Amino acid sequence: MIELYQSQRAMRNMRKAAMQRGVIAVLDVGSSKIACLVLRFDGSEKSGESDGIGSLAGQSGFRVIGAATTRSRGVRFGEINAMGETERAIRTAVQAAQKMAQIRVDHVIACFSGAGPRSYGLDGKVDIEGTTVSEQDIARVLSACDVPEFGDDREILHAQPVNFALDHRSGLGDPRGQLGQTLSTDMHMLTVDGMAIQNLAHCVKRCDLELAGIASSAYVSGVSALVEDEQELGAACIDLGGGATGVSIFMKKHMIYADAVRMGGDHVTGDISMGLQVPMATAERIKTFYGGVVATGMDDREMIEIGGDTGDWHHDRRTVSRAELIGIMRPRVEEILEEVRARLDAAGFEHLPSQQIVLTGGGSQIPGLDGLASKILGQQVRLGRPMRVHGLPQAATGPGFASAVGLCLFAAHPQDEWWDFEIPVERYPARSLKRAVKWFRDNW
């Protein structure tokens, strides 16, 4: 527990040092691609540091000066399963981005999906020592939160205060300097499988890079794909990746829930590969050019040449109707969306004042997906592209780059986390068995 707290603090300090030097890279380690963006900071970030708890990503402070992607290797379901292959892929992406930026990068902030995320809502309460709330009081109230027994093999990825209350006034973003007697807080904590974090950290180290931060893809995708109103009023971001689908719920500009479904676009490709008996690369091409989930009468007549180079003339000259292709794709896409629906129900999403759902990630580009998703998930579904950031190449502005762009915003303006405060070690949260579940029903 304490080591984790210290390693997160060490990463945060490393990030600050990199920012002062003016350049840092972000790395999205996905199942289908690895994306690296190199950011240059112009030093205007320091003025933004005092925006208080959870200041949201602004546009100031940085521009993208290098970008590269490479096909991912050794990553399944968003988790590393072949270290050497992933290491080579990360090196390829980082070197290409450095070459474009014409600068060497030592520090990276990485994000990954999968790893069995679990959300907890915690709360803590303390009496204020003076008359006004100090930084120390915030550290004390965060350390007063009861941390559940989440298991020795898991690590905390995010621990963010999402709400403060002072006496009877709730919904405070930053209570520092305000008068009152009793301070309480709600904290969202996200834990993931510890091995996944250690593997990623080890992999980055083997590439001669320093890890200056780590984030959940589901979280950073929401940061970049949800517009400010959606983050404020409540919305879910569904990040359809290759090997995993991230689910995050935002409210009052904070993530209050995250989860992941161990299925994504690669599973759809796999179904096409098996259904049509073609290699994965051919299946991916057919999916990208002709795929869809809603068949019309026209699709029976539209024939797709499968192609191939097996040498068997009849096998290589086969055609399939687009309706058949949709018939292969739709059941898997429905299955992924049903799983997402179950996660949203478990989180109590229907209790939020707004029911907006935003689909992003590379898998969200399947034609007709938004219509199918609104049938399965609820009414208000839109497709989300990541926010515009300075210097981002046109090729990296699509929904497949939502987490990479979100990671840039996270790097430039991280929300306050537990380890940003000087928590006295002896006050370090005792692990209690009190599980806080569906806490935002009571708090919003």
From TrEMBL:
InterPro entries per UniProt: ATPase_NBD, Cell_div_FtsA, FtsA/MreB, SHS2_FtsA
GO cellular component, one term: cell division site
Alphabetized CDD domains for the sequence: ASKHA_NBD_FtsA
Record's keyword terms, sorted: Cell cycle, Cell division, Cell membrane, Membrane
Record carries keyword Cell cycle: yes
Gene Ontology terms: biological process: FtsZ-dependent cytokinesis
Pfam families in the cross-refs: FtsA (PF14450), SHS2_FTSA (PF02491)
Location(s), subcellular: Cell membrane
Membrane topology: Peripheral membrane protein
Superkingdom of origin: Bacteria
Function per UniProt: Cell division protein that is involved in the assembly of the Z ring. May serve as a membrane anchor for the Z ring.
Subunit structure, interactors included: Self-interacts. Interacts with FtsZ.
Family of this protein: Belongs to the FtsA/MreB family.
HAMAP family assigned to the protein according to its UniProt record, in alphabetical order: FtsA
Name of the protein in question: Cell division protein FtsA
